[in-house]
From TrEMBL:
Belongs to the class-III pyridoxal-phosphate-dependent aminotransferase family. Keywords: Aminotransferase, Pyridoxal phosphate, Transferase. It comes from the Bacteria. CDD domains: OAT_like. The keyword Transferase applies. Signal peptide: none annotated. Its cofactor is pyridoxal 5'-phosphate. One of its GO terms (molecular function) is pyridoxal phosphate binding. Pfam families: Aminotran_3. This is Aspartate aminotransferase family protein.
């Protein structure tokens, strides 16, 4: 239904919008009114196909009846319960469901409400784990250039996107960064994982030499870089990081806030790449983005250390008022069930070649200088206009919306990552609309 009563400019002012150019937005707002399946309806009644799964969240598309019903039912039954000192049955069920789909001995689950909270939780667990083991000097954290790990102080400290860091003071002490494992000269336009580049992981050895392993608690990476513009790990890179961290007793954290729960056709990137980290952080698709939720999954030996090495009472002084919120849990249980019942991960596996071919079909499109993809994740690098970062990509983003396609903008990159239930026709429609968009931008 079309809103007959659009918001006036003065009504738009009170809301300080996140990661948004507020002034530009409020001068020309883009308002979404409803969503069903793969389509949003805007306040002026236009249909816009969701080429970005909301913000990498809506794996099942929007308004899946089983998820909606589960939330509705739970709201009428137990709308809130503290997780401090109390529990509710579905939270334990969900922890088991999540542990079951995670690889190897990643089998204990700590609930949060966002990706940022998952990251800060994982970093704190890593430092506390070493301390409990008598390794209290292991406090240093290693991230990576261009990494995105949310917006908490821990996350921006290990993160490597300069605008997310430079305004916010000196951040956490004792953090260092590995180089970004990407070279356009050898990797541009790779469909899937680049064949060369595993040696970027050896830079971690240099950081270990510099700081000494005895000071390093954890290394955190996105197995596939998401927010900085979808960069795929070279073959052998993650394996090498695993070898080096294991050799030096450093915990390896995979930040799977985007990649967990089907984006790459598996429950985790860890499963897809057959590399088992010590900790996995998740959020977003865990419950189809319907109610804020994240989860941190840790290896048994980490959980056991907390249980065995603390002297009674609270083992981890950490948690959130809304940890394991009943509505979020209900939505997650329903979502996880649908992933299985509807073969959602299998759909991604089956259609990944079609998705990759459709993306690379735009290789010669105007302005495109690189295309990267894996699973149902892809990004296009758009040539800068007059050397201004993001100026043309921003025009592409705006034009796409005008033409009925929602994409994700990040600097000079446009990410396309549709819901995991997309079929061939959806994929073709999305990339066709994107091709028309590129052609229409100067
Ligand atoms: C890898 C990664 N970590 C953390 C986050 C932060 O998640 P949130 O926005 O839910 O705090 C994101 C969000 O996109 C992400 O992609």
């Amino acid at each position: 239904m079309t809103s007959s009563n659009p918001l006036r400019n003065d009504e738009l002012q009170a809301y300080w919008m996140p990661f948004t150019p507020n002034k530009a937005f409020k001068a020309k707002p883009r308002l979404l009114e409803s969503a069903a399946g793969l389509y949003f309806t805007t306040d002026d009644g236009r249909q816009v196909i969701d080429g970005s799964s909301g913000l990498w969240c809506s794996a099942l598309g929007h308004g899946h009846p089983k998820v909606t019903e589960a939330i509705r039912e739970q709201a009428g039954k137990l709308d809130y319960s503290t997780a401090f000192g109390f529990g509710h049955r579905p939270a334990f069920e969900l922890a088991n469901v999540v542990a079951d789909v995670m690889p190897g001995s990643l089998d204990h689950v700590f609930f949060t409400n966002s990706g940022s909270e998952s990251v800060d939780t994982a970093l704190k667990i890593a430092i506390a784990y070493h301390r409990l083991k008598g390794d209290a000097s292991r406090t240093r954290l290693i991230g990576r250039f261009n990494g995105y790990h949310g917006v908490g102080f821990g996350g921006i400290s290990v993160g490597g996107m300069v605008n997310n860091r430079k305004f916010f003071g000196s951040l956490l002490p004792g953090v260092d960064h590995m180089p970004f494992p990407y070279d356009p000269a050898t990797m541009a336009f790779t469909n899937g994982q680049p064949e060369t580049g595993a040696a970027y992981a050896d830079e971690l050895e240099n950081l270990v030499k510099l700081h000494d392993a005895s000071t390093i608690a954890a290394v955190i990476v996105e197995p596939v870089v998401g927010s900085a513009g979808v960069f795929i790990p070279p073959i052998g890179y993650l394996e090498r990081l695993r070898e080096i961290t294991a050799k030096h007793g450093i915990l390896l954290i995979f930040d799977e806030v985007i990649t967990a729960f089907g984006r790459l056709g598996y429950a985790s990137a860890a499963e897809r790449f057959k590399v088992e980290p010590d900790i996995i952080t998740t959020a977003k698709a865990i419950n189809n983005g319907t109610v804020p939720m994240g989860a941190v999954i840790v290896q048994k030996r980490i959980y056991d250390t907390f249980m065995d090495e603390t002297k009674g009472g609270v083992e981890l002084f950490h948690g959130y008022t809304y940890s394991a919120h009943p509505l979020a849990v209900a939505a997650a249980l329903a979502t996880q069930k649908v992933f299985k019942e509807e073969g959602v991960y299998e759909n991604v596996q089956t259609l990944e070649p079609h998705f990759g071919a459709a993306a690379h079909g735009l290789k010669t499109a105007k302005h495109v200088t690189d295309i990267r993809n894996l699973g149902f994740m892809s990004a296009f690098t758009v040539a800068q206009r007059d050397g201004v970062l993001g100026a043309r990509a921003n025009d592409v983003f705006l034009k796409a919306f005008e033409m009925g396609l929602k994409v994700r903008l990040s600097g000079d990159h446009i990410a396309i990552a549709p819901p995991l239930v997309s079929d061939k026709a959806h994929i073709d429609r999305i990339f066709n609309l994107f091709a028309e968009t590129l052609a229409a931008v100067d």
